[in-house]
Amino acid sequence: MTRESNKQMDEFFDMGGNGVFVWNTVGLSIAILVLNLVAARRAFRNTVDRLRADIKRNTDRSTRQ
Amino acid sequence: MIYFHVPSAYLSMMVYVIMAVSAAVGLIWRIKLAHAVAASAAPIGASFTVLALVTGMLWGKPMWGAYWVWDARLTSELVLLFLYIGYMTLRSAFDDTSKADRASGVLAVVGVVNIPIIHFSVVWWNTLHQGPTISKMDNPSITADMLWPLLTMILGYTLFFVAILAIRVRGEVLTREVRSRWVGEMLRESIDDKRVE
After folding, report:
1. Quick one: pLDDT at residue B132?
2. Which of its termini does chain A have fewer beta carbons within 10 Å around, N or C?
3. pLDDT tens-digit series, residues B69-116
4. Does B62 touch chain A (CB under 8 A)?
5. Are the Cβ atoms of A54 and B178 closer than 8 angstroms?
6. Which pairs from A46-55 meet CB under 8 Å and 24+ separation?
């Protein structure tokens, strides 16, 4: 990388002195969007597993009777 | 910053309106799916509200020199977060789903009065937060170079919300309809096949 492109990269990440605020905003936004997706899929998976377990338990109980 | 803060603030309000309308439909016409949609939308809306508040704070520090001010817009958005938390907490306080639906539905409908307060706060009061820009139909006070990417981000966030809502509503409907035949058959088949449709 040339010195000029290094300087441009530094300026890009610095964002005119506001880099900390800008990149934290970007990171937090991405994190919350990903968290929403993961939480929704996990909630659905947990619901299905719980309901399956209930059905299996009821089926076993009625088989034993 | 504008491309993350504004879409999340917009979504925080839009999701609450969807939640309140769904709750009202559920209360008036007793449609269970409407309550399922309201219950599923709440955590998503709360997360967007948190995101709007925090990105607003990260924007406010370099712009205003303070992370937080008790400005009308910020305070009413914080009240929106409390409404979301109150809705979810009230739901979880009841074991009976129909009682939870009714109680939380009333809260959602009453709380919708906060949405126009948030929207018009920058017009009604002397606020630090900037005034309306893109909602001015006749002449948006934002350059087109920024307006179109902003509208694209708002559309993207909206479509993302719809996708996440669909996932959550699936689980909510399964829980509510667990005693019905189609859920029992579907789950028994998936137990045999070890997969979920």
Report:
1. 67
2. C
3. 898 899 999 999 999 999 999 999 999 999 999 999 999 999 999 999
4. yes
5. yes
6. A47/B171, A47/B174, A47/B175, A48/B171, A48/B174, A48/B187, A48/B190, A48/B196, A51/B174, A51/B175, A51/B178, A51/B183, A51/B187, A52/B187, A52/B190, A52/B191, A54/B178, A55/B184, A55/B187, A55/B188, A55/B191
Yes or no: say if B45 and B115 are a contact pair by the CB < 8 Å rule: no
- Can you read off the two tokens belonging to residue B150? 């902003």
Residue A50 in contact with residue B174, Cβ under 8 Å? Answer: no
Contacts of A48 in chain B (CB under 8 A): 171, 174, 187, 190, 196
What is the band of B139 on the pLDDT scale with cuts at 50, 70, 90? low
Instruction: Calculate the average pLDDT of chain B.
Output: 89
Phi, psi of A31 (to 5 degrees): -60, -45
Are B175 and A52 within 8 A, CB to CB?
no
Length of chain A: 65
Q: Do B168 and A18 touch (CB under 8 A)?
A: no
Cα dihedral value B46, B89, B22, A46, nearest 10: 80
Q: Do B160 and A35 touch (CB under 8 A)?
A: no
Q: Residue with structure tokens 């406010």?
A: B60
CA-to-CA dists, residue A44 to A18, A39, B40, angstroms:
39, 9, 11
Two tokens, residue B50: 């948190």
- The span from the CA of B19 to the CA of B66, in Å, is 32
Instruction: Report the candidate in B164, B48, B59, B71 with the shortest Cα–Cα distance to residue B118.
Output: B71
- Looking up tokens 């307006």 gives B147
